[in-house]
Amino acid sequence: MAPPSSRRSSYSRRAQYGVFTGYVIAGVGALIGAILLALSLWRPASFNGPRTVAQDAVAPAAEASAEVRAESQNLIEAIRGYLRAGSQNAELKQEVELARIRLAEAEAIKRENARLKALLGLEQEETKPVAVARLIGSSSASARRFAYLGAGSADGVKAGMPVRSPRGVVGRVLEVGRHSSRVLLLTDSQSVLPVRLSDSNVVAYAEGRGDSMLRIRLINLGINPLEKGDIFVTSGAGGYYRPGTAVAIVAEKTEDGALARIISDPAATDYVAVEEIWQPQAIRAAETPVEQSVADADGT
Predict the structure, then answer these.
(1) Which end of the chain is less congested by CB atoms within 10 angstroms, N or C?
(2) How far apart are CA 273 and CA 132, in angstroms?
């Protein structure tokens, strides 16, 4: 049997060369790394240039990555906002509704303060009211037009006293109880009030029609001088009402006068003032002949 050959094959020789080359490269790399490490420790500023070049090289990729990250965050926030939009919309609707309620309450308080200030102004006039009270009811089902006042004889109220609101005349007291009174409204069919135009001496009678309107009948017939929008005030005739208090505003012209809308609507009035009769002596003087005639009739 022949002895094995001591010669190496070409394949084994290439493997040895490859291993040797790897060791050499690794050694050279380690040597370069050690040199660079020592250089970086000795002179750190020497790597500013290469570091800047490297940063410039990777800047586009980093910028694209940052943009993708920002867009993804915006998308996530948009999805999250969409999911929360329903609940936020409901909350906003509740807040708006609550704000409207608060606004309505504030407006109601403002109107109430205005009415109370106007009534306070009535009390501060030269003629002090007998009483200031609330209208507590009205005759809605009857053809007659009455209102009920929360003040009576205990408060100094007497039959015949005029009743007015801050806007104008409401009516006059018809019956008096201890703590309440019944008021004959201007719109009642039995109510007749002497009036005149606010800016002239045209006199007339304001008669109730049983609804929300008054019929104005001129005393001096002839050419009708009334126009839509004219304002009538009390004339003082009859002695019950102080002259110059607002009564009605003309809404429609007729042959003998006009149809007028009452200025002081009792339905929109809360508080009213009861005033003294303007000329009680004139009223008593007008009633005395009637009483005397009745007494004479009883004597016969």
Answers:
(1) N
(2) 4
Count of CB atoms situated within 10 Å of the CB of 245: 20
**Which residue range forms the structural domain that includes residue 172?**
131-286
Global confidence as pTM: 0.56
Q: Does 115 lie in the same domain as 79? A: yes
**Count, residues in the chain:** 300
Cβ atoms within 10 Å of 37's Cβ, excluding its own? 10
Query: Could you please report the per-residue DSSP string of 202-214?
Result: -EEEEEE-SSSEE
Q: How many CB atoms lie within 10 A of CB 118?
A: 14
185 secondary structure, DSSP code:
E
Q: Which two structure tokens, joined as six digits, stand for 247?
A: 């009564």
How far from chain centre, in Å, is Cα 10? Answer: 104
Q: How would DSSP label each residue in 148-159?
A: EES--GGGT--T
- Residue at 154 is within a domain: yes
Summarised one tens digit per residue, pLDDT across range 145-197 is 898 999 999 999 999 999 998 888 999 999 999 999 999 999 998 999 999 98
